[in-house]
Amino acid sequence: MAKGKNATIYFCQNCGHESSKWMGQCPGCRQWNTFVEETVVTGASTKSTKNGTAKFNKPSALNEISLEEDDRISTHMKELDRVLGGGLVKGSLTLVGGDPGIGKSTLLLQVCRNMAQDGQEVLYVSGEESLKQIKIRANRIGEFNNQLKLMCETSLDAIEETMRHMKPDVVVIDSIQTMYQEDISSAPGSVSQVREATSLFLQLAKGLNISIFIVGHVTKEGTVAGPRVLEHMVDTVLYFEGDRHASYRILRGVKNRFGSTNEIGVFEMEATGLKEVQNPSEFMLSGKPEEASGSVVVCSMEGTRPMLIEIQALVCHTSFGLPRRQAIGTDFNRVNLLIAVLEKRLGMSLGNYDAYVNIAGGIRIMEPAIDLGIVMAIASSFKNRAIDNRLIAIGEVGLSGEVRGVSQIQVRVAEAKKLGFTTCVIPFVCMDSVKEVTGIKLIGVKSVGDAIDLI
User: Fold this and answer.
1) CA distance 33 to 54
2) Which among 454, 391, 377 is positioned nearest to 423, based on CA atoms?
3) How far apart are CA 387 and CA 291, in angstroms?
4) Which long-range contacts link 406-414 to residues 24+ away (Cβ below 8 Å)?
5) 70, 190, 231, 255: which sits with the fewest CB atoms below 10 Å from its CB?
6) Residue 82 near residue 263 (C-beta atoms within 8 A)
7) pLDDT (0 to 100) of residue 294
8) What residues contact 59, with CB distance under 8 A and at least 6 apart?
């Protein structure tokens, strides 16, 4: 192999764009001040492999490719299997991101325990913790068998050699930012190192038919640190969300080549690890106040799962010239838009009042179907009149004050009926879709005025 020479290259930390000189704005992603300087080896021949022979894949006919029923492996965690699309696919590369201390390592260690007990050969590679630290965390989770092997290593060459020799069924890499290739002079976590490490694990996953989980750190914006090409290379991207000081955790799939990208899994952090929440609606509504103004229940769809969420609003007279507006768990601009609709279409004078909107439970909902619930919660707090505790509101609100239809209305109403709600306020255009549903009172509204009259 010919020896290369060192050269200075500038990489964009956001998209991985390469440039021979520093630029203020990246031409690829149009982000400012994202270029970093790194030293790379250029001019080296890449035609030969480590053993001196090059191997090439031959093309195959589509009809000759067989799909076996056991291509998916169950993690024995229903919430995780739901997000993955029915189980872990053999030879897949899955990226798990989340804030520090949110529970990524705990979740994956529980998955390793379940799959090891199922007879799978599992390798857990940690570049951040020692073997004793992992053992202390494992003792809180439960008993482990000899099918799980631990390895503390950051060298990609050593990890590759171990995987080729051991040939495990499942591998966990914690984390991708700590792995480094000795041939690359840049520090671990840099654009070059992260891209090289991900490329290597992608080749090992596809070539050896190994399912690999890689843990990724996140930035203050909540995205995985490193180049955006990292998310493009993997098969599945999962984000572990939630307040680290709260007991619940949300596992959300934002990319999945083997299933839906809108599914979520709900977990509760306990002393013995993460516990699955089978009924998130009941969990989110626990502690809902009785006969309190500014509180209303809505139904949001997360993939194929309906979730009942409590929306709280507080409207109070302001002591300053400019009223405050604050939204937690939903889009701030959307809340301002709905307040403007109430002022213009219903004549509510909210210019001298502060308005605060909160999605109880800490979950973040961006679906327009909760618009009607936000409007009714704000009006309820403004008038200081409580809404019936057994009432649920579903609908999107337009700028003209009209209530528009939403998707999967039957599933939403059925979920509300299952949890004991007696009245459901829905868009009038959706009444024909749920006329066969019995056991719950359905009220169709055409405008926000019709909904406010129910308070």
Assistant:
1) 40
2) 391
3) 7
4) 406/368, 406/369, 406/430, 407/301, 407/369, 408/301, 408/306, 409/433, 409/434, 410/434, 410/437, 411/301, 411/306, 412/299, 412/301, 412/306, 412/369, 413/437, 413/440, 413/442, 414/306
5) 70
6) yes
7) 95
8) none
CA distance 165 to 167: 6
Q: Which two tokens stand for residue 362?
A: 């800490």
- Rounded Cα distance between 43 and 240, Å, is 41
d(CA 314, CA 213): 43
Q: How many CA atoms lie within 13 A of 311 on its CB side?
A: 34
What CA–CA distances, in Å, run from 173 to 85, 109, 151?
Answer: 21, 11, 10
Q: Would you state the torsion angle of the CA atoms of residues 151, 156, 159, 165, taken in this order, to the nearest 10 degrees?
A: -170
Residues of the chain with pLDDT under 70: 1-6, 40-57, 67-70, 219-227, 244-245
What SS3 state is found at 6? strand
271: which DSSP letter? T
In what helix (H) or strand (E) does residue 404 lie, and over which residues does it extend? strand 403-404
What is the pLDDT at residue 52? Answer: 45
